[in-house]
Amino acid sequence: MSEIKPTDTAATNAGEENDWAASKYFSDSLKTKKPKPPKPQNAVTIAVSSRTLFNMVEERKIYEEEGVEKYMAHMNQQKHENEPLMPGVAFPLVKALMTVNSRLRQLYPDSEELFDIVLMTNNHAQVGVRLINSINHYDLTIERFCMTGGQRPIGYLKAYMTNLYLSKDGEKVTEAIKEGIAAATMFTSGDVENQLSDTQLKVAFDGDAVLFSDESEIIVKQCGLDMFFEHEQEFENIPLKQGPLKCFLEALGKLQRKFYAKNERMTCPIRTYLVTTLRSWGLEIDEALFLAGAPKGPLLQKIQPHIFFDDQMFHIEGAKELGTIAAHVPYGIGQKYHKGELIEQTVKDVKDKK
Q: Which of 158, 186, 214 is the last residue of a domain?
């Protein structure tokens, strides 16, 4: 799983320090009012794909129907270079991360324990002008760009010490999780659009197979609730193994504690929620909501999070329908089920009826 960045600066080798110094010198020479990015080892790094940050439906259609060369030609046309892309599903989240950073800089002017937002895209560098122009148009504090030219992003995500990777490509997300990087596939909300807070970052998590391993969910799916409750009583004092996003939650908690240290617990601009049907296992989280099998959508509509993480598409779809920005974590036994039915068995039943 992805880990919180080490704070022992002595572990950073001289080569990395030299590279950082050269990069900082170049950054300082640029005429920009944007704050300088923190060192990767001190930051909570959020990597977002271009298709999550911006609405690129039209551009994606050109890519899929006419090929990469037509797509690059479209993006490179001068008339499009200065035409800002419309905000995408991750845009409100990025704005909320910037709000938190602004508050942290006010309290800790010299600290580098901040969110660092990286644009991670498989676009070629030649088409990056429009992306960068769009970022500047919206005054987004994104100073790091990784344009892989069609290569898989995994190696780059590790090099950037990524705490969370958000994409619209489920295969890339699955690959990232297998490599121990917290990741999720983002989905655009439905016709309803919730009014999101512009002063507080709200992040909602499912429990099992997201913050924890899927061991309890395996028992529910395979043996039913009665066996699950027996198992919970027998092993109530044994913590569950961590899931793919546990370290991201811990990274959020680390930043929250910086506000608590300044006596700003009640005005902390980060708020976390556990929205689950099972248990919490003593997580450091602001609000825990146990639904006992009830739909999550209505409650999420009340919370209005900037992002909600769940491992089951059934819950993702329910959240989307009521306007919640949802992100699928493709991990654990839940990937074999849909609406409580085993996907393989459903396919077999359909074939048997033919």
A: 186
| Choice among 116, 206, 214, 311 that is catalytic | 206
Give the C-alpha separation, 217 to 209, whole Å.
Answer: 8
Give yes or no: 206 in active site. Answer: yes
Q: Is 299 exposed, middle or buried (0-12, 13-18, 19+ CB in 10 A)?
A: middle
Domain that holds residue 41: 36-186
CA distance 18 to 25: 11
pTM: 0.82
Positive or negative, the CA dihedral 273, 41, 311, 246 is: negative
Residues 214 and 315 in one domain: yes
DSSP state at residue 335 = G
What are 214's two structure tokens?
Answer: 């899927």
Q: What is the pLDDT along the chain (354 residues), one digit of tens a residue?
A: 555 555 454 544 555 555 445 444 544 544 556 788 898 899 999 999 999 999 988 877 877 788 778 877 777 666 678 889 999 999 999 999 999 999 999 999 999 999 999 999 988 787 788 899 999 999 999 999 999 888 888 889 999 999 999 999 999 999 999 999 999 999 987 655 668 999 999 999 998 889 988 766 666 666 665 566 665 666 566 667 889 999 999 999 999 999 999 999 999 999 999 998 655 566 789 998 888 778 899 999 999 999 999 998 989 999 999 999 999 999 987 677 655 566 554 334 434 444
Query: Is 193 inside a domain boundary?
Result: no
Calpha distance 91→95 (Å, rounded): 6
